Amino acid sequence: MALSGDEGVVTGVAGGVDAVREAAGVRRFWGRLGLPGLIDVHTHFMPEPVLRKVWAYFDAVGPLTGMEWPITYRHEEEERVALLREFGVRHFTSMLYPHKAGMSAWLNGWAVDFAARTPECLHTATLFPEDGVAAYVRQAVESGARVFKSHLQVGAYDANDPLLDPVWGLLAEAGIPVVMHCGSGPAPGKHTGPEPVGRLLARHPRLRLVVAHMGMPEYADFLALAERYGEVRLDTTMAFTDFSERLAPFPEGELGRLADLGDRILLGTDFPNIPYGYVHQLEALERLGLGDDWLRAVCHGNSERLFGL
User: Fold this and answer.
1) Which of 32, 41, 241, 283 falls 20 to 30 Å from 213 in CA-CA distance?
2) pLDDT per residue as tens digits for the range 96-123
3) CB 94 within 8 A of CB 43
4) CA atoms within 13 A on the CB side of 307
5) pTM assigned to the model
């Protein structure tokens, strides 16, 4: 895959997906809805050595996945940013996360630079329950972080760890959203599931928590938390796609609740670490049959309001 001429148009084939045709399909989707583009709250950019290790994990059919997981958009950073621009993604994130103590401050420093050189990126930061976490989270907030990523499964930590309590309070007061992988998909972790998240929200009800992957596979439980707490949202990352429906199908009986919570569902995709083309996530949302107004809110309006864009 390459950039074509001065226009920065992406050409070639990405993981078996024709990039030009893919971009045309994505733009047709949001153009038909009358949107100026998309806002994707769950895209991954991180230091290249870390991203390569993530890809190697997927390639090796790691224990958290246990399945073939081809990376569709396995390209250099510049090309991946260009693809999102060609798709018409007006704002996106650089979801990054540590798997052990001692990584977060370094990752956050990288994220500052990435956001500075990538105007469309919502400056993203991360955290881990460790000594000094309150200080570096405050530093990230003061440096302009717009969203945080918390990965309870990979980090194998409890969101209710006492070291994190001042952090959640700070982020709740600042109104900064936290995208949290807290569902038990694709494999349960020691601290995943709705119960620990419910305890966290009972103590910090104003925390702007965005449940990644719709809380897969505990969809109904996380929808219930959103009904109970007005600042809880869910992102669509990989949910409803053919890939995920084979593993953890969304309950048809919950579509009514999904429609009713249409003002708190946000588009997320997991780009570039997805085993299918970007447009398939959009097609999966459309085939739910919840209507164009719902799609417009999910794919743009809800995130626009949340981040004050």
Assistant:
1) 32
2) 999 999 999 999 999 999 999 999 999 9
3) yes
4) 26
5) 0.93
